[in-house]
Amino acid sequence: MSNRRVVLPGVILGIIVLALAAVFAVVLPKVNGDTSDIALPDKLPGGYTATDLEAAYKGAQGATDAKVKQASTTERSARTYGDKALQASGVKSATRSYVSKDLSTPLIVQVFRAPGGAFAPFQFSDPKTAQAGQQVESLVRKGDVVCIQTGQADGQGNVQASYVECQKSDGDLTVQVTSPLALTKAVAVVDDVFDEVK
């Protein structure tokens, strides 16, 4: 049996994601575009499974039927609450959490049937002058995906990345993904989700 453990993914990013989701839900414009429902897939390329499914915890160390059922039930409740909270945007929207096969990498996905709003970090700090341990955010563009990369300054001008939130918007569809993945991998996930729901 593997050394994986049943954990509730998204704990690392939970508070941050809820705050960001609320901000984006409020600033996204109301539109009269595509009003079709959004169906986020059960699985994403790269081996990510939706955390509200029992299959996400298959093979995890100590994964009894009761623990797996409890974890997936908790995640279903979180998804329902997240979808309800996003209704404030006034557009069709959906949120869903995913986790990698080894349960080490969570993804938070949000999709809106609306053009993207303004997208920028809460603050800008120069890594060259930031003190060790200071949070540093930067705006990065990869192709047609824009990301806010957040990390910790090392006090010597370098940044240890901790997570990214990426957004892709085209027409009346916007996809956001928040994850501790490396930037290029996070961008690939955004593109995959965008292609899946467009």
Helix content: 25-40%
Average pLDDT figure: 83
Uncertain stretches: 1-35
Task: Work out the radius of gyration.
Answer: 17 Å
Structural class: alpha+beta
The fraction of residues assigned to DSSP E strands is 25-35%
What is the N-to-C order of secondary-structure elements (H for helix, E for strand)? Answer: HEEHEEEEEEH
Query: Which geometry do the CA atoms define?
Result: globular
**Tally of strands:** 8
Distance between the termini: 39 Å
Q: How many individual helices?
A: 3
The protein's oligomeric status is single chain
Q: Strand arrangement, largest sheet?
A: 1-2-3-4-8-7-6-5
Largest sheet: 8 strands, antiparallel
Describe the structure.
This protein has 198 residues and is of the alpha+beta class. The protein is built from three helices and eight strands. It has an eight-stranded antiparallel beta sheet, sandwiched between helices. The model is unreliable at 1-35 (pLDDT under 50). 34% of the residues are buried. The radius of gyration is 17 Å and the shape is globular. The longest helix has 22 residues, at 65-86. Helix content is 26%, strand content 28%. The protein starts with 13 loop residues before the first helix and ends with a helix.
